């Protein structure tokens, strides 16, 4: 039986994946807006250590997202479940992703929660679908895309049984705590001054990026607009659109004050050589086509719901990202003061 929502439960969220990039930033945004946040982790001591430098911390609950009873117990009394768990380095997607969403659906059905799922563009065909609307037909061309379609289909089917959900699709993540991602693991090397940039895209091809603090702010504001959301809601986060494949690299050069930093293209051919021996390389190779075609997210529904999308100017977002990664000698250049976030 669905639990009755109270004011307390409506302001309580369970975050699955709080030690990762998107889940951690979502938890921070919720805490900053006064929510009570629970975070289910297998090792609370290790999780607490990762959070030791943050101003507010969630309530740690021991559990495994692969165990339905654990998720049901952790979600009791929560109005929202942030389903931000992802297998590390793409390993085990086929075995793990769908059982985990099924467990979150079971927990949401018991608690009366709305599930929030961070979405991607992998549901679509990069060769034929370049401007992506929220409810357009999905044509996955990869195994990862097919799994993404199945995830969303499970949530849509659950909405007919009274389980509400919110899917927020976005481009590739970047930010001070983005975790595993193209920017934070490939474009620049964490913990070192920027000496070179390795870019997976092609010159002249547009690509979408999501600055995680903006995305998290948008998600929390959407969750707080519960009365305006449909039972099964899809929303697109436009983020930063790199129209020609140069904008992100150029912003890095401006922020570090080094216009001469070389930009190297990612050697995709290496993923082909390593694919027979590495699941991660096989999954990465599938993604190549999303860097060869411009796929832009239409955020009309986001704007209709919120009035405007949270948006930090690109150079400020890059500056904060590099500072958080330990790649800047000085966080703010002499004589300049940046606000941490600008909402437009």
UniProtKB/TrEMBL annotation:
Gene3D superfamilies: NAD(P)-binding Rossmann-like Domain (3.40.50.720). GO terms for molecular function: aldehyde dehydrogenase (NAD+) activity. It holds the Pfam family NAD_binding_10. Residues 17-121 form the NAD(P)-binding domain. SUPFAM superfamilies: NAD(P)-binding Rossmann-fold domains. GO terms for cellular component: cytoplasm. This is NAD(P)-binding domain-containing protein. It comes from Sphingomonas oleivorans.
């Amino acid at each position: 039986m669905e639990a009755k929502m109270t004011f307390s439960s409506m302001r309580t969220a369970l975050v699955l994946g709080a030690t990762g990039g998107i889940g951690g930033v979502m938890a921070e945004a919720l805490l900053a807006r006064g929510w009570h946040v629970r975070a289910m982790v297998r090792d609370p001591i290790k999780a607490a250590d990762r959070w030791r430098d943050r101003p507010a911390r969630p309530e740690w609950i021991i559990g495994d997202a692969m165990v339905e009873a654990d998720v049901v117990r952790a979600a009791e009394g929560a109005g929202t479940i942030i389903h931000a768990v992802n297998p590390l380095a793409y390993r085990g997607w086929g075995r793990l992703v769908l059982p985990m969403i099924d467990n979150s659906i079971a927990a949401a059905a018991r608690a009366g929660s709305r599930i929030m799922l961070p979405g991607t563009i992998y549901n679509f065909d990069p060769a034929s679908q370049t401007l992506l609307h929220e409810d357009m037909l999905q044509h996955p061309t990869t195994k990862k895309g097919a799994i993404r379609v199945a995830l969303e289909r499970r949530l849509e089917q659950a909405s007919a049984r009274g389980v509400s959900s919110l899917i927020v699709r976005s481009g590739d993540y970047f930010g001070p705590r983005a975790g595993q991602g193209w920017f934070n693991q490939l474009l620049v090397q964490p913990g070192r001054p920027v000496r070179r940039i390795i870019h997976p895209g092609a010159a002249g091809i547009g690509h979408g990026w999501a600055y995680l603090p903006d995305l998290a702010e948008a998600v929390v504001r959407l969750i707080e607009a519960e009365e305006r959301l449909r039972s099964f809601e899809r929303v697109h986060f436009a983020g930063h659109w790199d129209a020609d494949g140069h904008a992100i690299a150029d912003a890095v050069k401006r922020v570090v004050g080094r216009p001469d930093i070389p930009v190297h293209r990612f050697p995709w051919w290496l993923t082909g050589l390593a694919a027979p021996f590495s699941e991660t390389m096989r999954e990465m190779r599938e993604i190549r086509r999303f860097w060869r075609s411009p796929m832009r997210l239409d955020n009309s529904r986001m704007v209709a719901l919120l009035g405007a999308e949270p948006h930090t100017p690109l150079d400020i977002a890059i500056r904060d990202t590099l500072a958080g990664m330990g790649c800047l000698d000085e966080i703010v250049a002499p004589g300049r003061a940046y606000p941490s976030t600008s909402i437009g």
